[in-house]
Amino acid sequence: MKEDIRTLLNDAVRLLREMIAIPSPSFEEEKVSQHVSDFLTAAGIMHVRLRNNIISVNSGYSPDRKTLMLCAHLDTVLPAEGYSFDPYRPSISGTCPEAASVVAGLGANDDGASAVAMIAAMRYFYSLRLPINLMLVLSVEEERSGSGGMEAVCAALKEGLLYENGLTLRTPDWAIVGEPTGMKAAIAERGLLVLDGTASGESGHAARNEGVNALYTAIDDINRIRNFRFDRISPLMGEVHVNVTQIEAGTAHNVIPDRCSFVVDIRPNGEYTNSAILDMLQEVCLSRLTPRNLHNRSSSTKAGSPLLWCAAELGIETFVSPTASDWIRLDCDAVKMGPGDSSRSHRRDEYVTVGEIEDGIRTYIHFIRHFLKITDYGNTLEQRG
Asked: What is the pLDDT of residues 294-349, one digit of tens each?
C-alpha cells in the first residue's frame, strides 16, 4: 500500500534523529546499519545486508527489467571541534536561527537527510507495479573511501552474488546519488586523488649544520606541486585543483629531520586519469608520492541520458559539483541530488531543516514518477526526438 507523504515525513524525521544518536564514523557503522535494517523490516521493506551495507529492491523486482538505484551513505566523519551542542543528541528546534524547525547533529545533513528521504521514496513505490526496477542502497565507508562500502556492493552486483527473495540482483542502469545539493541535480562531479608525499634526508645536529634536511626537500617539492599547471581544461569542470593540506616533520628543535611527510589533495577534472596525474607530479618531485586510491575518477551524466531529460522537464537546476561521492564507484549513468546544503557538511553544528527533508521526499517521488514515464514510453533522447 502506498504511504502518504505526511506519514513518510514524520517517520523520516524520527528515524534521522535516531540515526544521529548512534555514532557511526566510517568503519564503525554496524549499530546504525542494524537500526536502519530494523526500521525497514518494521515497514515491510525486504532487504539484504552486505557487511554493513543495506540493499533493497521493489517488491515486483525482475532481473529482466532495467533498474534505477537510489543510494546514500550511513557513515559520518568524526565531529568537528566547537559544537555548541552534543553532536549525537539531535534537536528539532531553536538550534539554528535560519529555520524554525530543524534536525541537528552529526550526519543530519551529510548524509542522513538523503538516506531517510530515499527510504521514504522506496516505501512510496515499494508495492506498486513499475515498468522498471527500483533499488535502494545505503552504503558505508563513503567518507573514507573504504573498499567495504559501495565498492563492495558494486562488485557483488556485477558478479551476481546478491539475492533477494530468490532473485539475483543486477547492476543498476541509472542512479540518483543522495548528497546535500539543495535538490539541485549535479550532472558532473570532480574525482578525488590523495597522495602521501615522503621526503627523505639524513639526520644530524642542528648546531653543527649536519645532515640533509628532509623538510627543505619537501618544501621544494610542495612549491613544484603548487606551481604545476595541467594544460587540459574541462568545459564542465575547469582546471585540475591541487592543494597540499598537511605536513609533518621533526622530532626536536635541535635535530635535522631525516623524514618529512605531506598530503596532497587533488580534484581531477576528467581530462586526465588519476595515474597520469600521479606520473606527471612524480616526474617533477624528489619526494616519493604514494596514491591512497587511483579509482576515484571524475564522473558526469551521459549526454542523452533520461536522467537529464527528467531534470530538464521538471525544471530542476543542474550544476557541476566540486565534491566527490559514491558516484565515483558506480558503473552506471547517474546524477547527484539530495536535501540539505553541502556547505554545512563536515562543520560544527551540522543540521538539516524538516522542510528540506520534506522537499527531498516530494522531489524524489516526483522525479521517479516522471522517470518511470520516460523509461516506459521511450527511454532515450534519440527515441524522444
From this structure: 988 899 999 899 999 999 999 999 999 988 899 999 989 999 999 999 999 999 99
Distances (CA, A) of 316 to 184, 262, 311, 378: 6, 41, 5, 21
The answer to the question of residue 168 being in a domain is: yes
User: Worst-scoring range by mean pLDDT, 25-29, 79-83, 284-288?
Assistant: 79-83
What is the count of structural domains for the chain? 2
Domain carrying residue 217: 193-291
List the CATH number of the domain containing 139.
Answer: 3.40.630.10
| 339/3 Cα distance (integer angstroms) | 20
Residues 337 and 272 in one domain: no
The pLDDT tens digits of the residues spanning 64-76 come to 999 999 999 999 9
User: Which H, E and C letters describe the chain, residue by residue?
Assistant: CCCCHHHHHHHHHHHHHHHHCCCCECCCCHHHHHHHHHHHHHCCCCCEEECCEEEEECCCCCCCCCEEEEEEECCECCCCCCCCCCCCCCCCCCCCCCCCCEEECCCHHHHHHHHHHHHHHHHHHCCCCCCCEEEEEEECCHHHCCCCCHHHHHHHHHCCCCEECCEECCCCCEEEECCCECCCEEEEECCCEEEEEEEECECEEHHHCCCECHHHHHHHHHHHHHHCCCCCCECCCECCEEEEEEEEECCCCCEECCEEEEEEEEECCCCCCHHHHHHHHHHHCCCEEEECCCCCCCEECCCCCHHHHHHHHCCCCEEEECCCCHHHHCCCEEEECCCCEHHHCCCCCCEEEHHHHHHHHHHHHHHHHHHHHHHHHCCCCCCCC
Give the model confidence (pLDDT) of 114-173 as tens digits.
Answer: 999 999 999 999 999 999 999 999 999 999 889 999 999 999 999 999 988 888 999 999
Q: Is the pTM of this model over 0.70?
A: yes
Provide φ and ψ at 202, rounded to 5°: -140, 125
